[in-house]
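Journal club prep — side note

Before the paper discussion, L.F. wants everyone to see what a predicted structure for a comparable chain looks like in token form. Sequence:
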Amino acid sequence: MRAGSSHMKQSPVLTSILPRNADQTIVSVRDIVVGYGDTIVQQHLSFDVRRGSIFAIMGGSGAGKSTVLATLIGLNTPLRGTVTFAGEAYSALCASDRARIGRRFGVLFQTGALWSALTVGDNVALPMQMFTSLDRHSIRRLVELKLALVGLEETIDLMPSQLSGGMVKRAALARALALDPEVLFLDEPSAGLDPVAAKRLDDLIIDLRDALGATIVMVSHDLRSLLSIADDGIFLDGGTHSAIARGSPAELRDRSQDPRVQAFMRRDDPGSAEPHLEDRQWQAHGSRR
């Protein structure tokens, strides 16, 4: 889809995507357009993330979920619109101010993205070494604490290659927690995990939210995970390049009348007539994630 095309006209505003109480909002997105060059991935996105919520960015493959997440954390600059964090127009700031605010985020990448040449402990310590003036002993104690939070205190001196897939995700989560972030951004946290490991990670995410008071924004296509832990979210459509629904995954599954949302939210339901409809839709439109 091209930025200069007629499809760039303002899409109808979703009545369900409305500003919330400013005191409860930590991330606010207003009319952003995201993409690469003149190729539009998502357009006219407006939503708020409440403090303490677990907010899901949902949609089928190619809908632009990870592109939107990358824009929220500042890796991409929106082609238009603003992303506000705790009252500051984060997306419009200079590089140094964006870096200052970015230190209030924690990010779990889909693959974990641990440095293979560093021990687990050194991976977790790296943000503290880069952005604090703490001495080595204090950092070591904090690393032990962060690993204990995710149940991996015994792995501090192991290499990432010695960990299972689930342990890599938890170690990466410990690193994301290194600077005590206000918001955790998780990109497909349960991807590649078996159901037991995925359930443990879901439980851990809820425990961390409750214990630390962090807000969590997650991208996921895992229905079990979405329904278990997310209490709010948006649904991105790859065909129209827009958000077509807002609410918790359970609400969208039970109340949405949109066939695209139903195809995604009930794709594991044996009674669903079109269990993989959304995959064919995004492939047909040639969208990119």
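L.F.'s comment for the group: Residues 1-22, 270-289 have pLDDT under 50 and may be disordered. Keep this in mind when we get to the figures.
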